[in-house]
Amino acid sequence: MKNIVVFASGSGSNFQSLINAVSDGKLTANIVGLITNNRSAFALERAQKHGIPTFIISPDQFNSEPDYSKTVLSKLEEWNTDLLILAGYLKKIPIEIIKSFDNRILNIHPSLLPKYGGKGFYGSKVHEAVIRNKDSQSGCTVHVVTAEYDEGPVIGQSTVQVADSDTAASLAEKVLEREHILLPETIQKYLKTLKN
Ligand code: GRF
Q1: For residue 148, is pLDDT > 90?
Q2: DSSP H/E element including 1
């Protein structure tokens, strides 16, 4: 079975959806660790509750990006990591890590990429833009992480209808519900495509 490490900066409800999918047998993988940059992330409590090892690390603690990458990479090696999942992780992944985990980093984004992707589009900013533009649909996307922000190959997408009565907050809730289904399903399919 493959070993998954999740990166999360906040609530970690997507992380929880993976924990649940593993215990329901829908995701056949081991979640071997949680990495966060935020010592008050609720994701940490979720990890502790389920006995998942955690590592708190922020690029701000390091003088250089390569030093930061080296520390993260040695933790990933210690955990025998096969796949990284970015689930609400708000820090940039350095190029050294992207190169070491080529095609083995997935991210979930709360829009139908390529719409509302890239710099400045995170969290509520995405949903506010969808409402402002009166789009009739939105959704979420799982993509492979490459050096280009939010631009790697899309491997899973789920669409929700935007009602006239929706606000950014109600849309965020609808999309998040879909994320919790899309993320474990997409990982399960992706794992089958990975060699050895
Ligand atoms: C999700 O909307 C995810 O798509 C985005 O950040 C949010 C994280 O939510 N990248 P949670 O921490 O998993 O609850």
Answers
A1: no
A2: none
Single out the catalytic residue among 50, 109, 127, 143: 109
Q: Does domain 2-191 have CATH number 3.40.50.620?
A: no
Q: Is the CB of 108 under 6 A from ligand 1?
A: yes
Q: What spacing in Å lies between the alpha carbon of 136 and ligand 1's midpoint? A: 22
Residue bearing the CA closest to ligand 1, atom 8: 88
Take atom 14 of ligand 1 and give the residue whose Cα is closest. Answer: 13
Give the pLDDT band (50/70/90) at residue 63: very high
> How far, in Å, CA of 111 to CA of 169, rounded?
14
Q: What is the pLDDT of residue 196?
A: 66
Q: Are 106 and 155 in contact (CB under 8 A)?
A: yes
Distance from residue 73's CA to the centre of ligand 1 (Å): 23
Residue 39 dihedral angles phi and psi, to the nearest 5°:
-70, -15
Closest ligand 1 atom to residue 179 Cα is 4
pTM of the model as a whole:
0.96
Q: Where are the domains of the chain?
A: 2-191
List b or e across 64-101, with b for residues whose CB sees 16 or more CB atoms inside 10 angstroms: eeeebbeebbebbeebebbbbbbbbbebebbeebbebb
Known catalytic residue at 127 = no
